[in-house]
Specification:
With 248 residues, the chain is α/β, with parallel strands linked by helices. The protein has 9 helices and 11 strands. Strand 5 and strand 6 form a beta hairpin. The termini are close together.
Length: 248
Amino acid sequence: MTVSGKDSAPEAMIEADGLSKFYGDFIAIKDVSFRIPRGEIVAFLGPNGAGKSTTMKILTGYLAPSEGRALIAGHDMATDRLAGAERLGYLPENGPLYPDMTPRSLLEFFADARGLSGSRKRERIEAVVKQCELGSVIGKAIGKLSKGYRQRVGMAQVLLHEPDVLILDEPTSGLDPNQIREMRETIRKLGQRKTILLSTHILQEVEAMADRVILISDGRLRFDGTPGELRRDGRGLDERFHELTRSA
């Protein structure tokens, strides 16, 4: 296993400390540890069923670990989830978008749920509508929008409360090439100010966006390093991915 993590990096914004999750005899993940400091875009890479979604659900507090701790901005997501959630934006692969609502009504709903009100609520809705380029569809039913626009609505909802940390699960899944390009550009811009963990099994995402790669397979950490380190000895990402997941 190749692990060259950044344990000495200051101010870990995302931290997995010996995370394991068991379902009876089935091991979903086992002893997964990494630290992500402020201002990194990290690709969380692995084949389908590797344990990526389980790890992210534990990091966001949606699942409790069987062993270990998950921390967001220093807050233990098992014991201090509300404080951690204030610093976190989570975009699941199939987010909770209500098809009969418009982007505006959805954003107003989530703003209320986040405790935003008055001028602050109006300012944040206007800001994310502009940031995610939703102006042309703001009054249309979400169920009638393209997958690309639905992803933008999901991202706008995630950004409403100005989180420091973003955890994104397959944000380009199902998008056409132009929509993928737009989403990648949005993520790169966000990465200038925020810490981002980006789950993907698409190797092009690594090349396009990531400062660092964490690779998981069969529920265990297999690699933690830069994209350049992953392409060791001049081999391509696809060859290294196959090598690390095949030998797991």
